[in-house]
Design brief:
The protein is mostly helical. It contains 15 helices and three strands. The chain folds into two domains: about 100 residues, DNA polymerase, domain 1, CATH 1.10.150; about 170 residues, hpI Integrase, Chain A (Orthogonal Bundle), CATH 1.10.443. A three-stranded antiparallel sheet has the order 1-2-3.
């Protein structure tokens, strides 16, 4: 974002400058209503809402253009045509997310009595088989240590980034969970941290000593003065909480790896979360215990870490014909 764009954004946030008018179409209003439903009725995360509403908007514009949206006239051929159009420019794993978003929109339309169940059932499936799943994108313990050590604790940004990285490395928080943290979420007396997870669920996590010390250092010496109650604030104006749905936490991770001169194949925030699970597994933790720490809803979500435990899997492997074991 250029300096001029940042200035305009700040002035609009303060109400000094009016926002630019966008040329909207009826499909935008329907997609906005769908987003409201996802947020207030389904409790989806901001990133999922943005993805689903964008998919619905694109589908409606392809079908109705700038005309009034009439959901009752939708047919299976419309959804199939939309998916076939996406196939030309997307990989299967991305296309599966598009289909999931469109199916969610059709269920919303069915809930409102606009379409029938047969239209939802007619959504095509995306074949994306994989006989050799990729290994988890986990950063090594040594690389994580170097990234933490290279944070400049003499600067406000360095103090903030260190606290963020420790929340990722010690508690396995998701990026969105860190962005949503409020000052009141920290119970210093009992050393607990309230976390708002997926679907609006809240849970209390123990606050490790080094994480608490890093947060306290940021609050005392790095956090700008602001009425905003978010724990972590932007380093530049407007001084307010980190933007939800953005990749700001991912950016912090990427810069930390760059400073530490770590040439990691992946640079997203989930690699730090995966690394915590892998280290727990190596130290003898069960998959159930890992699932509790990572706050997985289903044991199936945690089962992906089973393939990392090579020694345990080695005992299950069948002997090669003729091999003496």
């Amino acid at each position: 974002m250029s300096e001029l764009s940042q200035l305009l954004y700040f002035l609009r946030e303060q109400g000094v400058c009016a926002s630019a008018r966008a040329d909207s179409v009826p499909a935008d209003d329907v997609a906005a209503s769908f987003g409201y439903y996802l947020r207030h009725e389904q409790g989806l995360a901001d990133a999922a809402i943005a993805h689903y509403t964008t998919t619905a908007q694109q589908f409606l514009i392809q079908r109705f253009g700038r005309r009034e949206v009439e959901l009752r006239v939708l047919r299976a051929a419309d959804t199939i045509e939309f998916v076939q159009h996406q196939v030309k420019r997307m990989q299967p794993h991305v296309l599966k997310n598009i289909v999931t978003g469109l199916r969610s929109f059709l269920r919303y339309a069915q809930y409102g009595g606009e379409v029938g169940a047969e239209l939802v059932a007619s959504m095509p499936a995306v074949a994306a088989w994989s006989t050799t799943p990729q290994l988890l994108r986990a950063i090594s313990a040594e690389h994580a240590k170097r990234a933490l050590e290279r944070c400049d604790r003499n600067t406000a940004v360095g103090r903030r980034d260190l606290a963020v990285l420790l929340l990722l490395a010690r508690l396995g928080l998701r990026a969105g969970e860190i962005i949503k943290l409020q000052l009141d979420d920290i119970d210093w007396d009992s050393a607990h941290l309230r976390v708002r997870g997926k679907g609006g669920r809240e849970c209390l996590l123990p606050l490790p000593a080094d994480v608490g010390e890093a947060i306290a250092d940021y609050l005392e010496h790095g956090r700008p003065t602001s009425e905003d109650r978010h724990l972590f604030l932007r380093a530049q104006a407007p001084v307010q909480g980190l933007k939800e749905g953005s990749d700001v936490i991912g950016t912090i991770v990427r810069y930390a790896l760059r400073r530490a001169k770590v040439d990691a194949p992946h640079r997203g925030t989930h690699q730090v979360r995966h690394a915590l699970a892998v280290r727990m597994l190596e130290r003898g933790a069960s998959l159930r215990e890992i699932g509790e720490v990572l706050r997985h809803r289903s044991p199936q979500s945690t089962s992906i870490y089973a393939k990392v435990d090579v020694e345990a899997l080695r005992a299950l492997a069948l002997a090669w014909p003729g091999e003496v074991r």
